[in-house]
Amino acid sequence: MLRRGRRQLDGLTMTASTPSVALPRYDRSKVTPGIVHIGLGNFHRAHMAVYLDDLMNMGLAMDWGILGAGVRPADAAMRKALLAQDCLSTVIELDPAGKTARRVGAMVGFIEVAPDNGPLIAAMSRPEIRIVSLTVTEGGYFVSAETGSFDASAPAIVADGKTPDRPATAFGAIVAALRARRAAGMAPFTVMSCDNLPGNGHLTRAAVTGTARLSDPELADWIDAHVAFPNGMVDRITPATGPREREMAASFGLPTDDFPVTCEPFRQWVLEDHFPSGRPPLEKVGVTFTDAVHAYETMKLRILNGGHAIIAYPGGLLDIDYVHQAMGEPLISAFLDKVEREEIIPYVPPVPGTDLGAYYSLIRERFSNPEVADTEHRLCFDGSNRQPKFILPSLRDALAAGGSIEGLALECALWCRYCHGTKDNGAVTPPNDPNWDQLTSLARAARQDPLVWLGLTELYGEIGQDPRLREAFSRHLNRLWQVGTAEVLHAYLASGQR
Question: What is the model's pTM?
Answer without folding.
Answer: 0.89
